[in-house]
Amino acid sequence: MEIFIQNLFNALQWGSFYALIALGYTLVYGVLLLINFAHGDIFMVGAYIAFFVSSLLLGDLLGVFNLPGWAALALTVPLTMLLTAGVGVTLERIAYRPLRRKGAHRLYVVITALMCGLILENGNLALLGASRRKLPDMVDKVVYTFGSVSVTNLKVWVIITAFLVFFLLQFIVTRTRIGMAMRAVSWDKFALPLMGIPLDSIIVFTFVLGSGFAGLAGLLFAMSYPILDPYMGAMVGWKAFIAAVVGGIGDIRGAFIGGFLLAFIEIMVAAFLPSTFRDLFAFTILLMILWQRPTGLFGVAKTTKI
């Protein structure tokens, strides 16, 4: 039982990373019906931004600042989210918006998203090199032990942060005027300008939210597993996308639960079977779910009026 509880905490931590990234996927898809395949690499960019921001604030870079760890962390979180959101908005402005205004087929937009992800990966590799980097320590690691179950303070923070982000996003989408506008875009983006709602502003806000959460996930991931490399977002991003699809892409609740479901399957398979079976069992089970629920656990099939 204690082994199960220990792995449950591990699954909650990994699920938090998947869920934060999956929320970005489902936000963009819910508004634009666009699968932003560059989103996993935005997560990677967020981790690197957190590295440079924290190194600068701690005095390890340039020696301008020399803040204590808690102050550096308090500033690194909003700065990382803001700068990563800027990366996402830049991609939308340069790559996606021109195609959208020209009425390009959705396939070309997906190919563009894949290309943007490759540019972020290889651009990072060209600028910073292939050597891995380590995020500086900003907080002391505290281990809480309950019998044979051990939980670190950072693991608790990651889990709590993921749930707080989910509730905040749920509030924004369902209880605010801009959230109502986001839902209106997903329903009929052609009628929206006729109602005086700026379409581009709503889309930019969507990318700000999704990319900001990806940056937060990158920071939390870098704090938990501090070794960074240019391709760290590829597999994590694909798995978060799969989690969003299984949960029901376009549904915030589905993306959040899908991230934890995928992490739970992965961790439990690795705990009781050889780790080489982890991805095989995880994706097989998820495929079986999609066989029974093609729209995902919480997705609803959309009807098109002709």
TrEMBL record:
Query: A Pfam family for this UniProt protein?
Result: BPD_transp_2
Which cellular compartments is it found in? Cell membrane
**Entries under InterPro entries matching the protein:** ABC_transp_permease, BCAA_transport_permease
- Identify the main location: membrane
Describe its membrane topology. Multi-pass membrane protein
- Superkingdom field: Bacteria
Give the matching CDD domains.
TM_PBP1_LivH_like (cd06582)
Q: What parts of the sequence cross the membrane?
A: 17-35, 42-65, 71-95, 107-130, 154-173, 202-225, 280-301
Alphabetically list the UniProt keywords. Answer: Amino-acid transport, Cell inner membrane, Cell membrane, Membrane, Transmembrane, Transmembrane helix, Transport
Q: Which PANTHER family match?
A: BRANCHED-CHAIN AMINO ACID TRANSPORT SYSTEM PERMEASE PROTEIN LIVH, HIGH-AFFINITY BRANCHED-CHAIN AMINO ACID TRANSPORT SYSTEM PERMEASE PROTEIN LIVH
Q: Which family does it belong to?
A: Belongs to the binding-protein-dependent transport system permease family. LivHM subfamily.
- From the Swiss-Prot or TrEMBL record, give the protein name: Branched-chain amino acid ABC transporter permease
